[in-house]
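I'll show a typical protein example:
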Amino acid sequence: MITLTILLLALSSYRWIVTVGAARLHAGGVARHDTLVSVDIDGYVRGPDGRPITDVQLRFWGSALEGEAATDQAGYFSLNASTRENECTLYALFDDPETPGVDLLPAARTVETPHNVVARVNFTMTPAAIVLLEGQLKRVEVAKDLTRYMFKVVDPGGSQVLCSGDLPLVYGTDQHARSLQLGLEASTLVVPASTPLAIRVTPASGYVGGQDPFWWARPEESTRRHEAFTEFTLWSGEGLTLDAGEVVRVDLEERCLRADLEIVGQLAGEVEAKIEAVEEMGFYSASERHELGSSRALMQGVVEKMEGGVLESCYYDLRQAYLKLLGVGVRMLSMRGEAALSVNALIFFTSVASVALATLLTESRARRALLSASVYAPLTLHLHRVYPGSGIVSPWRFLGIGAISFVAVLFAVDALPRAIGLGRGGVPGVGALVAVFSMAKRGLRRRRLRSLLASSSILALTMSFVALTSLSTGYGLIHSLTGSRPPDTSGIMVRMPAYEPENQFQNGWFNFVIPSVAEWAEGSEGVIGVSTKAENIPETSSLESLGGWPIRGVLGVEPDVEPLMPMIDASVEKGEPLREEGTCLVHGFMLVYAGVELGDLIAVRGVEMRVVGFFGDEISGVTDMDGEPLLPKYQKIMNPWDERPLQIVSAVTCEPETVLVTTLGTAQMIRGVHSSRIDISLAPEADPDVVGRSMAVSRGYRFWISSGGRVHFAQMGTWLAGRGLPVLVPWAIAVLNVVATMLSSMYERRREIDILSSIGLNPGHIAGVFLGEASILGVIGGGFGYLLGLGWYPLMSGLAIAPVVGQKVSAVWCIAALGIAVASVLTGSLLALLGSAGLTPSLRRKWSQDRRAEGPEGRWETKLPLILGLDELEGFVQYVVARLEAQRTPGAVPTIGLVRRNDREGGGAEVSFVYNEPNAALGLYRTTNSIRMSQEPLPGRPLFSATLVSEGRLEAVSRTGLFVRELLIRWSTERKRVESDLTLHHTSLDD
């Protein structure tokens, strides 16, 4: 017994010896331990005939490559490694260099490694064939580079992955694929010979495929990954059977297109079912059916183009069809919810329109309530019958909301004027507004026929807007003409999405081009060359100073492939063209002003370069494919005299004498220099527009397509599209109608205008009466036009040729309809007021600005329409100084600073000040100004004229002029009070 115990202890202390056979499938490296264990594995590798195989590559993998070995002439190998994994996998791969492809099927065995391991593993390899997948993996469902995917070798039914021992035949870039472990390209698939099989193309593990193409419209699905796509199978039916050593090349792009065509066809069927469902609920879907038909036409064109082998154009058309169908599907999903929510707002809007009409027609409270109910009842019934959202809510809820809305609006109309109050204690200014609208209402009531005709045109306008036009947004390709200059070469430029600056000192920054973009572009159809350009991120300070001469920009190019290199070479005036790494070109000014000679070594931020040539100013005329200068940019402070928080910073193109040109590799070594774009050269037979559009719809980058001396910009984004009758036609008719109506009304009421003016109403109040009449007509005509326009949709559904417009389901369109109506009447009224300026006293004054200096920031003189007597001069100056000082308080807009008063020779005066006003686009309007009062050389009593002298940009000077104009108008209305205060002030001083 004691002897047996000692023997067991001795065996347990000896190295663990294990022979590994078949084991379960495992990803490898899922668990680790703290200690480093050693692994010694040896064995033999034989072929299908039992003979040993020489030069078989053995790789031992955990979470990384732990060790490698190869077999000798006897087929024997010995591998030593160390690992912290609990389990690793030994892979065997044989590739005869004298034969194409991989000759034998790779094999693998799983080795458990919780402790030190000594193991023997023997492999018997079987015949194999090769499937080479050529071209890019592009799916219409994904608008980005697919970086993680799998190619699974499965049985013809697609239900089971084929294995070779412990090796699942899964290739690709996913963590569960075995291409990396076997040292194979992701698109090289080693498959068993003489075995029926198929290839299943799937997204990376954990990515959800496109079972529901509208998943991204559902909040609960927001965690899905962006590289998800619907998996598909190559070779359906009986599959593919290859002989040993056979190599099959498969065009992956064509197979993707065929799979995508099937996906888009299924999506079209789903969208059609959704359209039929909403049509049964009473919705009008002519626009959606048009989109469906357009998508199917694109699909049919894809089928025809695929037969001709035009794959790039096929992908563009299919992607467009897919996006159209997605947009229609999302609208169908949201239509029911929008209608159910909007019906409440439309019921309230119906009550407002009814009460507004009754209020216009009568002053009696009882009659108003009765008339409102008489109009509201049929309108509500009309809304319930024609609006599809009404059937979604229950009838009792519809009636309840209608009753509550009607009573609430009726009560508000009756109680609001009392709450506001027209006398003492009322809301300041609101009482005057109520009085103006009350006068407008009475004016419309006295002229019923004219008001009816004017409102009828507005009603017709709104009805046509609601029923015959549609505006919709969608996501798709945005394609437009751009570029400031004709490009010097043709092709396609690619930049990353635009950088969003957080402050002004990030203007001109850009997102760096990632290396995978160039790799993706090189694999696209028709591309023969890709060149990358590097440039500095714009800064306000120079990158380097050479002999006192600043270097503000660095340009890095690839001389061998850069399409603009001939133009760069032509600009070299002395020395040699740029070709080698570590060399550079500088401007000829460096030779004169910085003492730089050919062959000198110069350094920019620690990176040394040898000068091989000097270029001239001609390089500034080199234009890239986007129609912009090739040279980099730097940041220029447009108003350096201001403090930093108020400075305006713009990114401008570097002057050629401040630019250094070097090779791409050397430029990228300089701190702050990064890849900014790639230029794509195309084969002569390739169509740049087709290739560029196809690239744009497949990726979210920015593209510039240069062809025939013109540049088009292309990018995926949100667009706004309109269908149906252009609303500008009825809108213009309504505006002209209102102009004629209002003009005749104002000329007819000339005596009334004189009376209103004589009792103290200023021209603004009088104009407000006419604008109030126009607003009332717009609200009533627009409201009833919208409600009646909704009834056209059921009528148009029965027409043989239905107008292709989208139904305005959302209540937001109600506000838009009112806006169209009110804008038309207000525009017409304002035009009429301008045309009848002689009827009313005018506060308008004619201003003119005289430029006295050249340059963007010149000196401007504005003659002010003001003549002052000697007794008025002091009061005016004090008033101006007081008003300017009032604008110096923090938070005042505009802000006035440095207010100074000076006496002028000859008895005049001058008030100087600095004008500052924030501006979202430019950052700040700023001018330096002075108001100069000079004596006029006229006989009689002395008179003084006023001139505004401003220094700054024209936009800022105009803003300053508007401010001074308002100041003069206030002086005109308040001068009596100012003169009285000034008299009292002098009297008190005399006392």
User: Anything to note?
Assistant: The chain has 21 helices and 39 strands. The first strand starts at residue 32 and ends at 46. The CA atoms of residues 76 and 942 lie 120 Å apart. The mean pLDDT is 79.
